[in-house]
Design a protein that fits this description.
Oligomer: single chain
Number of helices: 1
Strand content: 35-45%
CATH architecture of the largest domain: Sandwich
Shape: elongated
Distance between the termini: 91 Å
Number of domains: 2
CATH topology of the largest domain: Immunoglobulin-like
Structural class: mainly beta
Low-confidence stretches: 1-11, 171-188
Largest sheet: 4 strands, mixed
Strand order of the largest sheet: 4-1-8-6
CATH class of the largest domain: Mainly Beta
Length: 188
């Protein structure tokens, strides 16, 4: 009777499940037009939720993240995934199924470069200027009474530096070209 119990116990215990490696290939969404000047995915770290903690893998220049020694019992399981460090990109999904040796995940612009806003002030006395037209990448906005403007830039035109022009409606000078950092645009 004891021998039968030992044989049955051995039958129901899982075999030696070896740890495995898994590669995630991050690819930009082909249906989203992105500017050639949009920043590439760089200095990114991807994380998988494994055994109640986040495990890191650095994303290579080829957009690959290699996870080593994933516990065998997670084979074919779905686990949460996220960027730990990344600038300008986001994942389209928040989980991945660990089947096979690799999987392609789609990334899209995160919207950080999609809004340019600022304030326009007079050079002489630093008063806010209203009615100034600001143009960035063909999109126009006019400053309000406090000199504020906000311009939404579509993904196919987003980049880290913009050439802007502005015209004061009251005096109508020729537009000037300025190089400005996105999200840090200031007219002084």
């Amino acid at each position: 009777m004891v021998a039968v119990g030992v044989i049955l116990l051995g039958f129901f215990l899982p075999g030696n499940i070896e740890p495995f490696e898994f590669t995630i290939n991050l690819q930009p969404d082909k249906s989203t037009a992105v500017s050639a000047q949009y920043p590439k995915l760089e200095n990114a770290t991807l994380q998988l939720w494994i055994n109640n903690k986040w495990e890191d893998a650095v994303v290579s220049g080829d957009n690959l993240a290699d996870f080593k020694s994933i516990p065998g019992e997670l084979k074919d399981q779905t686990v949460p995934i996220r960027f730990a460090t990344n600038k300008y990109w986001k994942l389209l999904q928040d989980s991945v199924t660990l089947s096979g040796k690799s999987q392609v995940l789609i990334i899209v612009p995160d919207g950080l470069l999609g809004t340019v806003s600022g304030k326009v002030r007079s050079e002489q006395d630093a008063t806010f200027l209203s009615g100034v037209e600001i143009e960035i990448e063909g999109v126009l906005d006019t400053t309000d009474t406090r000199g504020n403007f906000t311009i939404q830039i579509s993904p196919e035109k987003q980049k880290t530096r913009y050439s802007t022009s502005h015209t004061n409606q009251a005096t109508r000078p020729k537009p000037n070209r300025l190089n400005s950092m996105a999200k840090r645009l200031k007219f002084v």
